[in-house]
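Residues determine shape. We examine one folded chain.
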Amino acid sequence: MTSAIKSKAKVVAPMPLDVTPRELADEILKDLRYRVGKDASVATSYDWLAASIKAVRDRIVDRWINSTKQAYEAQAKRVYYLSLEFLIGRLMRDAFSNLGMMETIREALELLDVDLDVIAQLEPDAALGNGGLGRLAACFMESMATVGVPSHGYGIRYVNGMFRQEISDGQQVELPETWLDHGNPWEFERRERSFEIGFGGSVEAAEVQDGLVERHVWKPSEHVLAVAYDTPVVGWRGNRVNTLRLWSSMPVDPILLDKFNAGDHVGALEESNKADALSRVLYPADSHKAGQELRLRQEYFFSSASLQDILQRHLSQYGELRSLPDKAAIHLNDTHPAVSVVELMRLLIDVHGIEFDEAWDMTKRTFAYTNHTLLPEALESWPVPLFERLLPRHMQLVYEINAQILLEARATGNFDDGQISRISLIQEDGERRVRMGNLAFVGSHSINGVSALHTDLMKETVFADLHKLYPDRINNKTNGITPRRWLFQCNEGLTGLVREAIGARFLDDFEALAELDKFASDKAFVEKFAAAKRVNKQRLAQVAAERLGVKVDPSALFDIQIKRIHEYKRQLLNIIEAVALYDQIRSHPERDWVPRVKFFGGKAAPSYYNAKLIIRLINDVAKVVNRDPSVRGLLKIAFMPNYNVSLAEIMMPAADLSEQISTAGMEASGTGNMKFALNGALTIGTLDGANVEMQEHVGEDNILIFGLTAQEVAERRANGYKPRDVIESSPELSQALSAISSGVFSPHEPGRYRELIDGIYNSDWFMVAADFDSYAATQRKADVWWTDSPLWYTKAIHNVARMAWFSSDRTIREYAREIWNVRV
């Protein structure tokens, strides 16, 4: 007979945050010796970085454990946020600032002759995302911790993630982003939280009675392990710490010894290499079949691991699964985790023995889905043969769900054959494909857009028929950004100035920022605001000089467009207008031109030919313009390579003019527009995405709107738009396009951009020609505003003051109240 030994755990008080610099310095030295294994006399900057993080991380861990315990004991409903991207950037300043320890750590390191700013620059940007979708997920995780929502983020721990971008001869070169070279002191490996993930194989019927199949058994032919790595996410003031759980793939059998011993050394590692690929790169190129298959494998890998983890956690606390919708809100960030809908059905039915109808009801009440795009190609779909080969049981369930949905639609009598076809989870015209957007929609109780315009268009376009079938599901949750990262940390000068003017309340209640509005016409404050902006511009000018060898004048208007390179975001419109401006400056030197620096930054998908060509065009134009003495320095162009969160934190505070110029009706929301405005930039943009709501909040007099509306774009496309006629009626546009097409900026390859420009003449799907004259005229309006410096900065201050509503704290409270049913 054995006896159980029980021990009562000693309650450990959290480490204090009000530690003195001397005490913290001693802790850093101790961590340097015993956890890094170095003496101060031989420690490198990387060693000091690791020791500093670990000293503060201990305080985070205390609050992390307590937050988890409190949620468990209160039986609080948890939010599980599934996203293929989390563009978290550097975490050091984020964590130190949110704990209120930034000055303490700075002074502690000074006592050790270490410069915080120097070692902070060594922390790599986590390569876990590409653009707005991933950065939104990161802002949401921080806001959930800040407002008190118990949550887990789930994604993939990419070893290389999104590529590191270099520019060679004006062209984008993709290199591996080796962000884990020095380890990651923020993460905790949880080897005990490992789950087996299957692919391929066959489905067998079991327990057949009276000719009816009672149970299905999936027998995968391949298996990999998903191993959890946890990173704490610190909320403001450290009151709550949530978890970002990322999955790393490992082989079940690291090496096949029989093959190795037989001399097949490559074959012996085949399983290991296939597993390694799953968590190696974000968004493998899907222009070929192998890339498509890897992408689907990644999405199922992290979705299955996350759901298995969620169900295991729920069972360990409640002992049954029927209460899952009441205790767990699972949120799908775009279509990447949409396969979770059928995976949860498989787990509930095949593993836990719940009947289909009850499982489907539970699934719909548990899931919610955020749509981020109206672009058909971005609403993922997978070839049926590929889906069925990799996930045969899931294909069965897709057909079963689809039958129920289509029979339901047909029974209403309100849908014709065309509408039924569009509602179907299976695309039948052309190659048969599984529509992941439709699957996410039917499997969720809530589908939200991310701006008012986007949500309205979603009801009218991509989900019009599904909205007709389920009219109560679509709702709007306009995006937001975390002010901790995008003001307090990246713009200390402006933060201090605001605090001096209105007091510190806005740090905890961001809506109080509105009180700054009354200082917009205060001459002394305007002058201080301009001075703070100039410091930020000087910093960016220094970075441009160091990285590009381009010297720019901080007193010039800094005109910045930084975002993913895509034709609908219209970096092409921007650079064509720059060419037109270049021609005008040379042709009319007598005019009083406003000195302007046009900054660009962003990555193009490796297989997106036109996007990469636009990058090359920007660099080719820059090479000519920046070296032309006749311009007299009045126009400079700079493409900043390897755009990431850390570079954004330098560029956004330095911007005078924010380019948000997407073709109307194509940008779901945007969050860069919010970050720029919060940092005192004026927006030049179309009435697209959240620009519409920004105009409502900042006022029409404080934003530069141009171009066609979404409705006008749709009408032009429907009524036989002829771009050639538009081009020929605009001398500036015609001349600029001719210069680019004829090789003025590519003399060694005159035809380099001919096809790109021909696309504008022949179709102009993205309305570059249609909006050019309006855009160019609005740029000249910006020049007029800029020449009246007090007027410009008054408008900029209004923008800052009126951006409080665009906090991700507000967005998360809306999600919690209206979608997740979580009390905050």
Residues 1-7 have pLDDT under 50 and may be disordered. The radius of gyration is 28 Å. Residues 14-74+93-122 form one domain. The chain has three domains: 14-74+93-122, 75-90+125-478+813-820, 483-806.
